[in-house]
Amino acid sequence: MNPPRARMTVRSSLLAAPLLAGTILLAATIFPARAAPAEDGTRLAGLLAMPYANGLTGAAGTPRIAWVERRDGVRNILVSDGGAAPRRVTAYTKDDGTDLWGLSLSPDGRMLAFVEGGDAEYPDDAPPNAGNAPIPGKQTVRVVLPDGRIVAAGEGHAPAFSPDGRLLAFAHGGTLLVGRAGGVARAVLTTRGAITALHWSPDGARLAIEIDRGSHDVIALWQEKSGDGAPVFLPAALAHDQMPAFSPDGRSIAFLRVRKPLPTAERGKGSFWSIQVYDIATGAERTLWTAPEGAGSRFWAPEGVGLAWTGDGRLLFPWEGSGWLRLCALTIAAAPAEPRCLTPDGAEIASYRLSADGTRLLYTANAGDVDHWRAWSQPLDGGPASPLTGEDAQVMDVTTAGPAVAVMATSVDRPAHPVVLQNGAPRVPAAPLPPTGFTFTTPRIVHVRSEDGRDIHGQLFLPPATTPGPHPALVFVHGGPERQMLPAFHPMGYYSNAYIMNQVLAARGYVVLSVNYRSGTGYGLAFRDAPGIGRAGASEYGDVRATGLYLRARPDVIPDRIGIWGGSWGGYLTALALARDSSLFAAGADFHGVHDLTEPDHPGLSPVEKRQALESEWRSSPAADIAHWRAPVLLIHGDDDHNVEFEQSVLLASLLTARGVPFEDHAFPGERHAFLRTQDWLTAYLWTLRFLDAHLQVGHAP
């Protein structure tokens, strides 16, 4: 989940700043800017080089798992059997920004499909070229054969093996390609829109295809032996039909029908989603259940958390009916169907699977401690849940591989890595060890009382006890904004890097507080969908400001040396803090932030409502408070950003220049929103260290 692409109200033809020579305009610092000491560059490089794993997948019929490992910026795919020592099946050698993603193992685990290149968030956009190759690579589906050879199946994404492993299907724009697994695929249909996901029926006779057509989504069925190969569309509506799931016998498909409310829609009013069931033989569709008004009347779930059928005729689905995202079940044959929620209240789920024998529910949740995520196992026929992972790890992703259960785990000193749970014993195929000479501080959970009385959680990183205080301090604000930072490495690569940066800042002498402000995840619906957030008033900024005041009141913090840094929505909040409270926040680093939230087009609103919405968006924007901005800021942005338009930072640089506000700016030609090259993260973080040191006077007595 990413911040919406912000539409610019002012566009500029200013050229991007040179890659390695950012300009400090009208700098007014007490101490001259200095390069971060060489040891910081070595330390950061070593930490960012730690192996980080993502994209975990398992084979349906055997305990084989595969994942992508990024080590020193180079991505490769590793495979492990039952948690044994892994073997590398690719041989990439460059930190050139070429991503590997979309991993899919054949049911017997003998073949592996993956996507080389492209962008997992925007698979149908032009592929990125962060390494600025003279001829950019294409987004290509490749297959690792049983003998280790790698062949190209074709251009596209979302590879999926048929249940018997005979066929491989994938998509390219609105084209479906299918071919013999290990061979070259051919186009079997093309439709308007973009194919976003593929789902095989249990017998492999059909594919359910999710198609995004902008204003709505439709679901189509393709059958290999249907004569002309024409798709059969499920009964469509003026809505977003998504997440199809075949019943175990392949005769029915359940799916979600989701409608998007207008910005003016009252919270809790209206019902914006339902669960539909389609009978393949008759073509009949019926509504199984409609979310009632109140909590959970708008659909929300993390990516990948959808529908699943159980063997006893129940349908599993996520729902926030209690105010917390729980996994619930509907009995298909019941009329009317009434949901029964299975996972604990007061906690949220992040992922789930059914065990290989279909008798147990495997899920990850922050049950018992909202700042700590574990994997759990629970009998489907009733009975209490039991933890699968210990208290020393953070686990937000669970999958299965034959009879084995695999999770992606992190800890205070270890980035994301797979752990296989088989016969009750955890096995770690590849343990990422921290570089020698660096000691990770254990972040402390702290509670900050916001101005309106809300309890705000954060993680406090303290300098070593041997570092004399008081210290300069920093607030770190995450992006999303639907994210939750943890007192450990984060499973997302973007925030795994940010965690490293916060650790280095603390080791360097800063008190760092990472704040989980309202509109984030992990703390329930009322927190994530709090009144007045974002464009409706930026109420989350009150939590950020309260965090700054908390730091200022600490005896180990120098009150006038508090800075702030963050990226994406965190960049937006960094800019908002500097624009509104330069007397509290003395400097900041804004990575690819949003600076003008105005959206002139508001279909469905009256002229009066449009003016009110535009005014609210403007008042919620950093640009609206530019006259009060005094503190220096560092701006960093990749100029091929598809999440937040590069022009957002160009606009802010122009506004700051006109007001005489000191800033330093850097652009990465060819980089995306989340930088694809580790070298670019290292460069950006070293710029940030130098800038913050100069303006917050680290190492200088108060």
UniProtKB/TrEMBL annotation:
Per the UniProt entry, the signal peptide is: 1-35
Q: Which GO terms describe its molecular function?
A: serine-type endopeptidase activity
Concerning InterPro entries, the annotation shows: 6-blade_b-propeller_TolB-like, AB_hydrolase_fold, Peptidase_S9_cat, WD40
Pfam families attached here?
PD40 (PF07676), Peptidase_S9 (PF00326)
Biological process terms from the Gene Ontology for this record are: proteolysis
Q: Which residues form the Peptidase S9 prolyl oligopeptidase catalytic domain?
A: 503-697
Q: Which PANTHER family match?
A: DIPEPTIDYL PEPTIDASE FAMILY MEMBER 6, SERINE PEPTIDASE S9 FAMILY MEMBER
Q: What name is this protein filed under?
A: S9 family peptidase
